[in-house]
Amino acid sequence: MKVNPIEFWEEFIQTELLKIHLQRNNFLRNSKNVPPMNVS
């Protein structure tokens, strides 16, 4: 299987950025709604 490294990395970076973005949004949403005691 031949993979174009540039395409692979572009896709990889996009995926990672999206994950980070979603995690950050979840964290912000949770931190507003959840009292500090319940943060795990």
From TrEMBL:
| Protein name according to UniProt | Uncharacterized protein
